[in-house]
Model the fold of this input.
Amino acid sequence: MLRPGDALTVLFTLFENGHLQQWLAEIKVVPLTDEERRAKPREDIMYSSTGNEYRLASAPAAFALRMFGPLREADAATKSSNPVPEKQARFLVQEDFLSFGYDRFGELILRLRTLGQVPDIGIFTGRFSEKDIAWYRRWAEKAGFTSADELICVKQAFALVEFLKIAQRTPGIKEIVEATIEIPSIWSVLRTRKLGVYFQYDWKNVQRLEGTPYGLASSGVYVLPFGLTMIGKHVANGSWFATAARPPLLASAGVVGLIVGPPDHKEKYLELHVIAARNAPP
Done:
């Protein structure tokens, strides 16, 4: 569980045509108010392409954000008395959804790949057609894809949506992402099929790396490449770098890095690195 005082330090770097801008952010768990603590756990619903419905509930946690920047290369050569721009925000997240993380999903992909299969399954907030459900059920039976495997995929989708909501609701982070990917609404990822928004992993290039370079000697780091398509247009490519979602990295759903950018602009992309993480004092 998250505890007030758990904190992450995150470095954002935006590269564009050989130039860069950087922001430094601290994301810290803070106490809930009495009203927030008494609130009923929120329940969300998702549907799988095999026709199953999943209702999962989560209690809230509160985050406080301090973000400094942007800092540009030219700033390093000048001595300025002006303070670095700072933004602050407080927002709620669904702690249980973050805890689902991506590590078990990465393991599932690697296991199925050794069997010549990939988790060819869809997870959305709307129901699939009966025709689609029949096809996916036949695939699942042929691939030996179990109900436990499907639940791992579903939980990954909940973690993904919750992670993206942090950026959607957070002044500073939202502007950085929108400056990187110029689309009407990146935040509808996985939220509707009617708009034709699809988040698709590149199954063939999922990897498991040693965690030591990331300061995680006892854990592996999964690289999960992805593409984002909206209304028939391929609008972004990227990769998650994620480990087990345990404190203090529970605050980021286990994500330790992210690279994302438009597919038609190789000189423009955003990198996110968790450069420090600490647990609350005992």
User: Anything to note?
Assistant: Residues 7-37+65-92+101-114+160-278 form one domain. The CA atoms of residues 103 and 244 lie 5 Å apart. The first strand starts at residue 7 and ends at 16. The two ends are 14 Å apart (CA to CA).
